[in-house]
Amino acid sequence: MSLPFLPAGQLPAQAPEQRWLIEPLWGAEAVGIIGGEPKCGKSFLALDLAVAVASGTACLGRFRAARAARVLLFAAEDPLHVVRERLEGITAARGVELRTLPLYVITSPRLRLDDSTHCERLCETVEKIHPALLVLDPFVRLHAIDENAAGEVAPLLAFLRQLQRKHHLAVALVHHARKDAGRARPGQALRGSSEFHAWGDSNLYLRRRDQLLRLSVEHRAARSPDDLTLELATDPLALRIADSPPDTAPPSQLSAVQRIQQALAGAAAPLGVRELRAACRIRSETLCAALDVLLAEGRVIQSPDGYSLAA
Q: H or E element: which one contains 26?
């Protein structure tokens, strides 16, 4: 029996409003990675995504979900009371009540994607809840395979892809980046096999710069937005887009790179991102991009205390 086929002109079309779960962060029915080094806010971002979809409100306070829909979450590393505390902080920031949301948390202590019984139970749970988004955090706690072996990673990712296609849901998989991958492209910095980067339709990557976080977005079939600078607010506890002062160039019209070098040259000690942003009077996104250039060229060095000119 031959495979089914259609003339290209008869392929189904998708309306623009059906392309996004959260525009422009995550595609509708997209699988992908929320990646970054340990302790850089990946779980907070995953929960923010979950609250936005469940409530139909704006992720990070700016990017509204296309519709309110059910969400299924498994947080493998955090106790349930910690998950609740984080969700309460995010819902408070969004102005919604946690108890009213169709956001469901798997309470089983273990979920293994390399165990057929666990996979069957996950499928049954998805069939019962019908979520628009499944969040699994983090991948390293969901298996006992070698993450560097493509032959072992691929079947697990294929199972999640099959789940996505069968149930028409999006899958967000939290995954660690390598600790020594600060200068690599975000997708290439993911720990383990290159299968992770190739698998994702929508990917979000976080990198820490002192107290600020840099968010990069990547899509397989859509234009990626510019990088964003985030910070973790404390009241309520939730991620938000960092307030950036307007770019006001001094009379000399110095470039961002020149302003950073000038500020560091006049400093008696290393400067952090906040201090540099205030001294240079430029946006956080512009500042971080210029710092990347200076670090890559070896003109600036980074230490635990901040940034300083290279000798």
A: strand 26-27
**18-57 per-position pLDDT tens digit:** 689 999 999 999 999 999 988 899 999 999 999 999 999 9
Identify the residue with better confidence: 207 or 278. Answer: 207
The residues facing 63 across adjacent strands are: 59
Q: What is the CATH number of the domain that holds 161?
A: 3.40.50.300
Same domain, yes or no, for 87 and 128?
yes
The whole domain housing 263 covers: 256-309
Structural domain count of the chain? 2
Mean confidence (pLDDT) of the chain: 89
List residues bridging with 209 in a β-sheet. Answer: 212
* Residue 275 belongs to domain with CATH number: 1.10.10.10
Q: Which residues of 58-89 are buried (b: 16+ CB within 10 A; e: fewer)?
A: bbbbebebbebbbbbbbbbeeeeeebeebbbb
Is residue 109 a contact partner of residue 61, using CB atoms and an 8 Å limit?
A: no
* 256 has pLDDT over 60: yes
Euclidean distance between CA atoms 208 and 226, whole angstroms = 17
Whole-prediction pTM:
0.78
Q: Which residues contact 247 (CB under 8 A, 6 or more apart)?
A: 281, 282, 283, 286
Q: Are residues 208 and 296 in the same domain?
A: no
Cβ atoms < 10 Å from Cβ of 177: 25
Do 148 and 267 lie in one domain? The reply is no
* Cβ 196 vs Cβ 205: under 8 Å: no
Tokens of 135: 């969040």
Sequence-distant (≥ 6) Cβ neighbours of residue 274 within 8 angstroms:
210, 211, 212
User: Does 82 reside within a domain?
Assistant: yes
Last residue of a domain, one of 218, 241, 264: 241
Is residue 243 predicted with pLDDT exceeding 70?
Answer: no
